[in-house]
Amino acid sequence: MLEKNPTAIISVENVSLAYGAADGPNVLEEIDLKLHEGEFVCLLGPSGCGKSTLLKIIAGLIQPSAGSAVMDGIHITGPEWHRGVVFQQPPLYSWLSTRENVRFGLKMRKIPKAEGLKLADEYLDKVGLLQYAGHKPYELSGGMKQRVAIARALVNSPRVLLMDEPFGALDALTREEMQQLLRNIWRETGCTILFITHDVDEALSLGTRVLVMSRSPGRIIREFTTSFTCGITAESTGQARYSPAFLKLREEILGLINKQKLSSINNLN
Ligand SMILES: Nc1ncnc2c1ncn2[C@@H]1O[C@H](COP(=O)(O)OP(=O)(O)OP(=O)(O)O)[C@@H](O)[C@H]1O
Q1: For residue range 55-90, what is the model confidence (pLDDT) as tens digits?
Q2: Is the CB of residue 48 below 6 angstroms from any atom belonging to ligand 1?
Q3: Which residues form the ABC transporter domain (predicted)?
Q4: Cβ-Cβ contacts under 8 Å for 110 (sequence gap 6 or more)
Q5: Domain enclosing residue 168, as ranges
Q6: Is the CB of 179 under 6 A from ligand 1?
Q7: 47 Cα to the center of ligand 1, angstroms
Q8: What is the pTM of this model?
Q9: CATH code of 245's domain
Protein backbone atom coordinates (compact mmCIF):
# COMPACT_ATOMS: atom_id res chain seq x y z
CA MET A 1 0.00 0.00 0.00
CA LEU A 2 1.14 3.58 -0.57
CA GLU A 3 3.26 5.37 2.00
CA LYS A 4 2.86 9.07 2.71
CA ASN A 5 6.11 10.02 0.95
CA PRO A 6 6.59 7.22 -1.52
CA THR A 7 9.90 6.73 -3.26
CA ALA A 8 9.98 6.85 -7.06
CA ILE A 9 11.30 3.55 -8.37
CA ILE A 10 10.96 4.56 -12.02
CA SER A 11 11.45 8.08 -13.33
CA VAL A 12 10.73 8.91 -16.94
CA GLU A 13 12.00 12.38 -17.66
CA ASN A 14 11.17 14.49 -20.68
CA VAL A 15 11.00 11.44 -22.94
CA SER A 16 10.27 11.78 -26.64
CA LEU A 17 10.38 9.04 -29.22
CA ALA A 18 10.26 9.00 -33.01
CA TYR A 19 10.33 5.64 -34.76
CA GLY A 20 12.49 5.45 -37.87
CA ALA A 21 14.17 8.64 -39.08
CA ALA A 22 15.33 10.94 -36.28
CA ASP A 23 13.44 13.84 -37.89
CA GLY A 24 10.25 11.74 -38.18
CA PRO A 25 7.14 12.63 -36.18
CA ASN A 26 7.27 12.07 -32.46
CA VAL A 27 5.07 9.22 -31.23
CA LEU A 28 5.79 10.31 -27.65
CA GLU A 29 6.60 13.85 -26.63
CA GLU A 30 7.85 15.29 -23.35
CA ILE A 31 6.65 12.46 -21.16
CA ASP A 32 7.32 12.87 -17.45
CA LEU A 33 6.22 10.01 -15.25
CA LYS A 34 7.20 8.66 -11.87
CA LEU A 35 6.17 5.22 -10.62
CA HIS A 36 6.28 5.09 -6.83
CA GLU A 37 6.89 2.08 -4.64
CA GLY A 38 3.70 0.02 -4.32
CA GLU A 39 1.62 2.03 -6.80
CA PHE A 40 -0.77 0.45 -9.29
CA VAL A 41 -0.74 2.84 -12.23
CA CYS A 42 -3.14 2.31 -15.13
CA LEU A 43 -2.49 3.92 -18.49
CA LEU A 44 -5.43 4.75 -20.76
CA GLY A 45 -5.61 6.50 -24.11
CA PRO A 46 -6.86 6.15 -27.67
CA SER A 47 -5.41 3.45 -29.88
CA GLY A 48 -2.01 4.40 -31.29
CA CYS A 49 -1.27 7.11 -28.71
CA GLY A 50 1.95 5.41 -27.65
CA LYS A 51 1.02 3.46 -24.49
CA SER A 52 2.92 0.32 -25.52
CA THR A 53 5.85 2.42 -26.72
CA LEU A 54 6.10 4.05 -23.29
CA LEU A 55 5.90 0.66 -21.57
CA LYS A 56 8.62 -0.72 -23.86
CA ILE A 57 10.90 2.21 -22.99
CA ILE A 58 10.43 1.48 -19.27
CA ALA A 59 10.97 -2.23 -19.92
CA GLY A 60 14.24 -1.36 -21.68
CA LEU A 61 13.11 -2.90 -24.98
CA ILE A 62 13.53 0.39 -26.88
CA GLN A 63 15.50 3.56 -26.16
CA PRO A 64 13.93 7.03 -26.24
CA SER A 65 15.05 9.54 -28.89
CA ALA A 66 15.35 12.16 -26.14
CA GLY A 67 15.07 12.23 -22.36
CA SER A 68 15.69 9.34 -20.01
CA ALA A 69 14.09 6.43 -18.18
CA VAL A 70 15.71 5.56 -14.88
CA MET A 71 15.14 2.83 -12.29
CA ASP A 72 16.52 3.45 -8.80
CA GLY A 73 18.73 6.19 -10.24
CA ILE A 74 20.24 3.92 -12.92
CA HIS A 75 19.52 4.46 -16.64
CA ILE A 76 17.43 1.73 -18.19
CA THR A 77 19.47 0.42 -21.12
CA GLY A 78 17.93 -3.03 -21.60
CA PRO A 79 15.47 -5.53 -20.16
CA GLU A 80 16.20 -7.09 -16.78
CA TRP A 81 14.44 -9.30 -14.28
CA HIS A 82 13.66 -6.56 -11.73
CA ARG A 83 11.10 -5.41 -14.30
CA GLY A 84 8.69 -8.21 -15.24
CA VAL A 85 6.72 -7.79 -18.48
CA VAL A 86 3.38 -9.38 -19.39
CA PHE A 87 1.89 -8.88 -22.87
CA GLN A 88 -1.62 -9.53 -24.19
CA GLN A 89 -0.51 -12.67 -26.07
CA PRO A 90 1.89 -14.38 -23.68
CA PRO A 91 4.82 -15.75 -25.68
CA LEU A 92 4.98 -19.13 -23.95
CA TYR A 93 7.39 -21.76 -25.27
CA SER A 94 5.16 -24.39 -26.85
CA TRP A 95 7.65 -27.24 -26.33
CA LEU A 96 8.06 -26.58 -22.61
CA SER A 97 5.68 -27.60 -19.84
CA THR A 98 3.89 -24.97 -17.79
CA ARG A 99 6.38 -25.52 -14.96
CA GLU A 100 9.39 -25.16 -17.30
CA ASN A 101 7.90 -22.02 -18.85
CA VAL A 102 7.66 -20.48 -15.38
CA ARG A 103 11.19 -21.65 -14.49
CA PHE A 104 12.69 -20.36 -17.74
CA GLY A 105 13.91 -16.97 -16.43
CA LEU A 106 15.31 -18.59 -13.29
CA LYS A 107 17.25 -21.04 -15.47
CA MET A 108 18.68 -18.13 -17.48
CA ARG A 109 19.74 -16.56 -14.17
CA LYS A 110 21.47 -19.83 -13.23
CA ILE A 111 19.26 -20.43 -10.20
CA PRO A 112 19.90 -24.08 -9.16
CA LYS A 113 17.38 -26.47 -10.68
CA ALA A 114 15.86 -27.74 -7.40
CA GLU A 115 15.33 -24.18 -6.14
CA GLY A 116 13.94 -23.10 -9.53
CA LEU A 117 11.44 -25.96 -9.64
CA LYS A 118 10.33 -25.22 -6.08
CA LEU A 119 9.81 -21.55 -6.91
CA ALA A 120 8.01 -22.37 -10.17
CA ASP A 121 5.57 -24.61 -8.30
CA GLU A 122 5.09 -22.00 -5.59
CA TYR A 123 4.06 -19.38 -8.17
CA LEU A 124 1.96 -21.82 -10.20
CA ASP A 125 0.12 -22.50 -6.96
CA LYS A 126 -0.36 -18.76 -6.38
CA VAL A 127 -2.09 -18.42 -9.76
CA GLY A 128 -4.12 -21.61 -9.18
CA LEU A 129 -2.39 -23.77 -11.79
CA LEU A 130 -0.23 -26.19 -9.84
CA GLN A 131 -2.24 -29.16 -11.09
CA TYR A 132 -1.37 -28.09 -14.67
CA ALA A 133 2.39 -27.92 -14.05
CA GLY A 134 3.07 -30.78 -16.48
CA HIS A 135 0.74 -29.52 -19.24
CA LYS A 136 1.97 -27.86 -22.44
CA PRO A 137 0.66 -24.38 -23.41
CA TYR A 138 -1.61 -25.81 -26.17
CA GLU A 139 -3.51 -27.69 -23.46
CA LEU A 140 -4.39 -24.46 -21.62
CA SER A 141 -7.18 -21.90 -22.11
CA GLY A 142 -6.42 -18.22 -22.83
CA GLY A 143 -6.95 -17.27 -19.19
CA MET A 144 -4.72 -20.12 -18.00
CA LYS A 145 -1.94 -19.06 -20.39
CA GLN A 146 -2.17 -15.55 -19.01
CA ARG A 147 -1.88 -16.97 -15.47
CA VAL A 148 1.27 -18.80 -16.54
CA ALA A 149 2.66 -15.54 -17.98
CA ILE A 150 1.94 -13.76 -14.68
CA ALA A 151 3.57 -16.57 -12.68
CA ARG A 152 6.57 -16.46 -15.02
CA ALA A 153 7.00 -12.73 -14.42
CA LEU A 154 6.38 -12.95 -10.66
CA VAL A 155 8.69 -15.90 -10.01
CA ASN A 156 11.63 -13.50 -10.35
CA SER A 157 10.17 -11.28 -7.58
CA PRO A 158 10.28 -8.22 -9.83
CA ARG A 159 9.99 -4.83 -8.13
CA VAL A 160 8.04 -3.52 -11.10
CA LEU A 161 5.49 -5.38 -13.17
CA LEU A 162 4.78 -3.91 -16.62
CA MET A 163 1.56 -5.22 -18.15
CA ASP A 164 0.42 -4.40 -21.68
CA GLU A 165 -3.30 -5.13 -22.00
CA PRO A 166 -2.80 -8.50 -20.32
CA PHE A 167 -6.51 -9.30 -20.10
CA GLY A 168 -7.57 -7.73 -23.41
CA ALA A 169 -8.19 -11.04 -25.16
CA LEU A 170 -10.16 -12.69 -22.34
CA ASP A 171 -13.92 -13.10 -21.94
CA ALA A 172 -15.64 -10.88 -19.37
CA LEU A 173 -15.88 -13.48 -16.59
CA THR A 174 -12.31 -14.70 -16.89
CA ARG A 175 -11.19 -11.09 -17.07
CA GLU A 176 -12.85 -10.25 -13.78
CA GLU A 177 -11.32 -13.33 -12.18
CA MET A 178 -7.89 -12.31 -13.44
CA GLN A 179 -8.36 -8.77 -12.14
CA GLN A 180 -9.08 -10.14 -8.67
CA LEU A 181 -6.07 -12.45 -8.90
CA LEU A 182 -3.83 -9.53 -9.87
CA ARG A 183 -5.27 -7.31 -7.14
CA ASN A 184 -4.52 -10.03 -4.57
CA ILE A 185 -0.98 -10.50 -5.90
CA TRP A 186 -0.39 -6.73 -5.78
CA ARG A 187 -1.65 -6.55 -2.20
CA GLU A 188 0.41 -9.56 -1.16
CA THR A 189 3.70 -8.69 -2.89
CA GLY A 190 3.53 -4.87 -2.71
CA CYS A 191 5.13 -4.69 -6.17
CA THR A 192 4.72 -1.62 -8.36
CA ILE A 193 2.51 -2.13 -11.40
CA LEU A 194 2.14 -0.23 -14.68
CA PHE A 195 -0.90 -1.60 -16.46
CA ILE A 196 -2.11 -0.64 -19.95
CA THR A 197 -5.76 -1.09 -20.77
CA HIS A 198 -8.47 0.23 -23.09
CA ASP A 199 -11.10 -0.42 -20.48
CA VAL A 200 -11.91 2.52 -18.19
CA ASP A 201 -13.75 0.26 -15.72
CA GLU A 202 -10.72 -2.01 -15.50
CA ALA A 203 -8.40 0.96 -14.90
CA LEU A 204 -10.61 2.43 -12.20
CA SER A 205 -11.19 -0.83 -10.40
CA LEU A 206 -7.51 -1.82 -10.39
CA GLY A 207 -5.44 1.34 -10.24
CA THR A 208 -4.39 3.67 -7.45
CA ARG A 209 -3.59 6.19 -10.18
CA VAL A 210 -5.05 6.44 -13.67
CA LEU A 211 -3.18 8.32 -16.40
CA VAL A 212 -4.86 9.44 -19.61
CA MET A 213 -2.80 10.00 -22.76
CA SER A 214 -3.44 12.07 -25.87
CA ARG A 215 -2.51 11.05 -29.40
CA SER A 216 -0.23 12.64 -32.05
CA PRO A 217 1.94 13.24 -30.23
CA GLY A 218 1.44 10.98 -27.23
CA ARG A 219 1.42 12.95 -24.02
CA ILE A 220 0.04 12.38 -20.55
CA ILE A 221 -2.79 14.88 -20.33
CA ARG A 222 -4.51 14.03 -17.04
CA GLU A 223 -4.01 11.93 -13.98
CA PHE A 224 -6.50 10.77 -11.39
CA THR A 225 -5.72 9.34 -7.97
CA THR A 226 -8.23 6.62 -7.10
CA SER A 227 -8.77 4.18 -4.26
CA PHE A 228 -11.60 1.93 -5.45
CA THR A 229 -9.21 -1.01 -5.77
CA CYS A 230 -8.37 -0.93 -2.05
CA GLY A 231 -11.91 -1.86 -1.04
CA ILE A 232 -12.74 -4.32 -3.82
CA THR A 233 -13.03 -8.03 -3.08
CA ALA A 234 -14.23 -10.84 -5.36
CA GLU A 235 -17.75 -10.33 -3.97
CA SER A 236 -17.87 -6.51 -4.08
CA THR A 237 -16.60 -5.69 -7.59
CA GLY A 238 -20.09 -4.88 -8.89
CA GLN A 239 -20.91 -2.73 -5.88
CA ALA A 240 -17.81 -0.55 -6.38
CA ARG A 241 -18.46 -0.18 -10.11
CA TYR A 242 -21.95 1.16 -9.56
CA SER A 243 -21.01 3.64 -6.85
CA PRO A 244 -21.73 7.28 -7.76
CA ALA A 245 -18.05 8.27 -7.31
CA PHE A 246 -16.91 5.50 -9.69
CA LEU A 247 -19.52 6.37 -12.33
CA LYS A 248 -18.67 10.09 -12.16
CA LEU A 249 -14.95 9.48 -12.68
CA ARG A 250 -15.69 6.95 -15.40
CA GLU A 251 -17.76 9.51 -17.28
CA GLU A 252 -15.06 12.16 -16.96
CA ILE A 253 -12.34 9.85 -18.29
CA LEU A 254 -14.51 8.53 -21.12
CA GLY A 255 -15.25 12.15 -22.07
CA LEU A 256 -11.51 12.89 -22.25
CA ILE A 257 -10.80 9.84 -24.41
CA ASN A 258 -13.75 10.48 -26.71
CA LYS A 259 -12.57 14.06 -27.19
CA GLN A 260 -9.23 12.64 -28.39
CA LYS A 261 -10.97 10.31 -30.82
CA LEU A 262 -13.17 13.11 -32.18
CA SER A 263 -10.23 15.43 -32.73
CA SER A 264 -8.43 12.65 -34.70
CA ILE A 265 -11.52 12.15 -36.89
CA ASN A 266 -11.74 15.91 -37.48
CA ASN A 267 -8.04 15.98 -38.43
CA LEU A 268 -8.70 13.29 -41.04
CA ASN A 269 -11.55 15.29 -42.64
N1 LIG B 1 8.22 -0.66 -34.25
C2 LIG B 1 7.53 0.38 -34.73
N3 LIG B 1 7.97 1.03 -35.83
C4 LIG B 1 7.30 2.09 -36.34
N5 LIG B 1 6.17 2.59 -35.79
C6 LIG B 1 5.69 1.99 -34.70
C7 LIG B 1 6.33 0.86 -34.10
N8 LIG B 1 5.62 0.48 -33.03
C9 LIG B 1 4.58 1.32 -32.94
N10 LIG B 1 4.61 2.23 -33.94
C11 LIG B 1 3.68 3.33 -34.16
O12 LIG B 1 3.72 4.16 -33.00
C13 LIG B 1 2.42 4.62 -32.65
C14 LIG B 1 2.12 4.23 -31.21
O15 LIG B 1 2.02 2.81 -31.12
P16 LIG B 1 1.76 2.07 -29.75
O17 LIG B 1 1.65 0.62 -30.05
O18 LIG B 1 2.76 2.50 -28.77
O19 LIG B 1 0.35 2.69 -29.36
P20 LIG B 1 -0.74 2.15 -28.32
O21 LIG B 1 -1.31 3.36 -27.66
O22 LIG B 1 -0.16 1.11 -27.44
O23 LIG B 1 -1.80 1.52 -29.31
P24 LIG B 1 -2.93 0.39 -29.02
O25 LIG B 1 -3.77 0.91 -27.90
O26 LIG B 1 -3.68 0.29 -30.31
O27 LIG B 1 -2.20 -0.88 -28.67
C28 LIG B 1 1.46 4.03 -33.67
O29 LIG B 1 1.22 4.99 -34.66
C30 LIG B 1 2.23 2.86 -34.25
O31 LIG B 1 1.87 2.63 -35.58
Answers
A1: 999 999 999 999 999 999 999 999 998 999 998 887
A2: yes
A3: 10-240
A4: none
A5: 8-82+160-268
A6: no
A7: 8
A8: 0.91
A9: 3.40.50.300
